[in-house]
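Renewal narrative, Specific Aim 1. Our central claim is that a sequence can be written position by position from structural information alone. The example that follows is taken directly from our test logs and has not been curated for this report. It begins with the structure tokens describing the chain, in the order in which they were read.
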């Protein structure tokens, strides 16, 4: 009897718990797009554990209609993934990881290619194309092929739809690096860790998420004849019309840099801005202006809606998305622009049929549709950034509106005829300013963790930069439409663009990023959960708890960056001189930047640890084997000083680096390495590093060509010896000193 009562009580409590949990899912009734998105993401995961858990939770907690929605979206997503994975292998394009010389025929499918329609735009460095045939070295005939590839050919500037025949080499975009971490205590091994993986930005994964197979580096090309389908011809005409519009809007501008910036601002053409300009916008937290998103699409939809005002209500709202899609197509249909288009389309068509749906539901549905179109978007930074920021802005909209209403509360108690004009202006400014600051802070917090994870950038002053740019951005787009009418308007546009550059450059050069280590994925999930609670929960205790959690996470990431252990990184490979990095919590010193690969790995490892600056770079020679990767370091990190053994000759590679724009603000000094001795070519070379109690000598001995011995000496300790084989594969050996 006791056991029976126990079971009844247990089942009763379980039922009450399920009912209370189900009450928490009332939001699903308002936002069924959340059910669809969860089903799509679950199917995209391809993990049966995730699929099983989410399906069990859906069957337990959702009502019958939403169960069917979840199962349908899960099944559709899984079926699309299965279909992609079981596509037949392209027999004409079987490429190994080793370089393969070939001649290929392609059709240009990159919407950013403008050809001769915009002669003032520089040619793109990489171009997306559809391969149609391939002929490897030694073969006599072309084999039919298919699929998207990336083409890189110097000075190639084709137009969308052009057919080309290219000669060159296929190279794998994946560059694995051997990484070995050795923790030394009194110069004895305490712990070792070995990995063979991609360090930093995984270009191969980036391309795979976009359905691109491989990369072809061309040396020669010629135009050939080819056939375009009706849809491709229409798209080619749209892009040709885009070129005419840009030529019209920029005909009065004098600077080609400003013309290119307008092309990027209006249509998202990536090579419209220089590397230095993009760098200053990235590190000041304003690079989102170069992405066609809700701002651009929303303004155009509003303008089209006003133009279609004479038409009936239903017809007008049915036509708005059709007209907007032409603009989105001209921008290349990136994830942010498609997100904005789908939101406007869902909203317009719902309005046309007198249906109401919340904005958050529309963005969730838009995310699900894009993931069904391309499951790889789930792992794409641009997709995540676009949707997460907008979702949190919508979640916070009610709270921001409440603060705005609070600012105007005083006016409600005063009759309209007795409201003084100064008070109206004051409260209007207060309400709008508060809305901008709160919205900007929300967007910054939502995007900061993603920026920290992918780019190792946390720039708190980006809120201030974006606020300063608002008075420049809003009048810019209407003025661009009027630019062909007057040289004065064109001069104003150029002044605005130069002011935008100057503001971003000032903040980038004079203010540093907040040093934080790269967060773990589970910490990011915890951060977003706490932020969502902070924005939605009304209980003060939960708000305080979530705020403390956010501050604690940022504090932990900051503390980890400020308490880095003393370490030495040795990067070898490719036959060039080794690259050495001495790091601790106070400063980082680099010896040589021998190659792009070594510098890329070095920058990635440093930024993941919250190190955004190298205090000094010592070059031990003037040839390319010592400084070939300098450009990458200068673009990724701030450099305090460059130290060279002697001023290079004009023909030396280092001379070209020192004359470049990337080092204009960096002091250069000549030093004979009295403290840091490193003489390449001698059998015994030594680097002596002394800083803040970190005393270490590194002896570098070339045993024989291709094999180097590193001997680590510290005062009072037995030397530690390690041999490194200098192969074509990059090797990173990190020694952490306790």
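The sequence written for that structure reads:
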């Amino acid at each position: 009897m006791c056991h029976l009562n126990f079971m009844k009580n247990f089942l009763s409590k379980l039922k009450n718990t399920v009912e209370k949990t189900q009450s928490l899912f009332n939001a699903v009734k308002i936002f069924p797009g959340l059910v669809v998105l969860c089903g799509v993401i679950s199917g995209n995961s391809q993990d049966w554990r995730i699929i099983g858990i989410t399906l069990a939770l859906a069957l337990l907690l959702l009502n019958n209609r939403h169960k069917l929605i979840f199962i349908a979206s899960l099944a559709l997503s899984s079926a699309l993934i299965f279909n992609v994975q079981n596509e037949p292998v392209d027999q004409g394009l079987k490429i190994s990881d080793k370089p393969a010389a070939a001649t290929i025929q392609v059709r240009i499918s990159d919407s950013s290619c403008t050809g001769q329609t915009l002669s003032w735009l520089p040619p793109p460095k990489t171009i997306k194309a559809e391969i149609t045939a391939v002929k490897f070295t030694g073969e006599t005939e072309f084999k039919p092929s298919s699929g998207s590839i990336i083409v890189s050919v110097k000075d190639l500037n084709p137009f969308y739809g052009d057919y080309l025949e290219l000669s060159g080499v296929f190279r794998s975009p994946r560059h694995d690096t051997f990484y070995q971490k050795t923790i030394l205590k009194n110069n004895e091994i305490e712990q070792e860790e070995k990995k063979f993986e991609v360090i930093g930005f995984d270009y191969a994964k980036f391309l795979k998420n976009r359905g691109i197979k491989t990369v072809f580096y061309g040396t020669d090309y010629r135009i050939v004849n080819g056939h375009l389908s009706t849809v491709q011809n229409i798209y080619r005409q749209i892009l040709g019309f885009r070129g005419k519009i840009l030529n019209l809007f920029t005909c009065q501008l004098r600077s080609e840099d400003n013309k290119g910036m307008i092309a990027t601002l209006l249509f998202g053409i990536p090579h419209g801005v220089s590397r230095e300009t993009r760098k200053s916008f990235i590190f000041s937290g304003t690079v989102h202006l170069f992405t066609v998103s809700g701002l651009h699409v929303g303004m155009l939809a509003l303008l089209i809606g006003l133009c279609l005002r004479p038409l009936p209500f239903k017809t007008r709202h049915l036509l708005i998305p059709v007209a907007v899609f032409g603009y989105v197509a001209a921008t290349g249909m990136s994830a942010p622009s498609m997100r904005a288009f789908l939101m406007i389309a869902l909203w317009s068509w719902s309005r046309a049929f007198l249906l109401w749906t919340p904005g958050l539901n529309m963005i969730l549905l838009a995310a699900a549709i894009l993931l069904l179109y391309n499951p790889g978007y789930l792992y794409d930074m641009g997709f995540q950034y676009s949707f997460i920021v907008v979702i949190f802005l919508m979640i916070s909209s009610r709270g921001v509106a409440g603060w705005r209403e609070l600012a105007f509360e005083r006016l409600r108690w005063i009759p309209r005829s007795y409201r003084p004009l100064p008070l109206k202006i004051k409260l209007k400014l207060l309400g709008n300013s508060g809305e901008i600051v709160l919205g900007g802070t929300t967007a910054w917090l939502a995007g900061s963790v993603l920026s920290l994870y992918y780019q190792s950038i946390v720039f708190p002053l980006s809120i201030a930069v974006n606020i300063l740019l608002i008075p420049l951005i809003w009048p810019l787009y209407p003025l661009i439409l009027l630019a062909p009418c007057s040289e004065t308007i064109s001069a104003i546009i150029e002044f605005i663009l130069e002011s935008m550059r100057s503001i971003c450059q000032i903040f980038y050069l004079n203010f540093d990023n907040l040093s934080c280590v790269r967060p773990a994925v589970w910490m990011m999930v915890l951060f977003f959960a706490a932020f969502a609670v902070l924005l939605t929960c009304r209980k003060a205790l939960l708000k305080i708890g979530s705020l403390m959690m956010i501050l604690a996470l940022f504090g932990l990431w900051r503390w980890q960056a400020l308490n880095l252990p003393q370490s030495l990184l040795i990067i070898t490979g490719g036959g060039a001189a080794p690259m050495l990095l001495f790091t601790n919590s106070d400063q980082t010193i680099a010896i040589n930047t021998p190659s792009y690969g070594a510098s890329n790995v070095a920058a990635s490892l440093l930024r993941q640890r919250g190190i955004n600056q190298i205090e000094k770079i010592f070059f031990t020679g003037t040839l390319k084997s010592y400084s070939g990767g300098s450009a990458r370091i200068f673009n990724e990190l701030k450099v305090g000083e460059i130290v060279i053994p002697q001023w290079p000759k004009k023909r030396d590679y280092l001379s070209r680096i020192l004359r470049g724009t990337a080092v204009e603000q960096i002091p250069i000094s000549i030093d004979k390495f009295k403290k840091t001795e490193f003489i390449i070519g001698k059998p015994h070379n030594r680097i002596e590093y002394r800083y803040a109690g970190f005393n270490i000598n590194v002896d570098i001995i070339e045993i024989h060509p291709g094999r180097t011995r590193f001997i680590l000496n510290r005062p009072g300790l037995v030397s530690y010896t390690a041999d490194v084989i200098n192969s074509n594969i990059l090797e990173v050996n990190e020694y952490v000193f306790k």
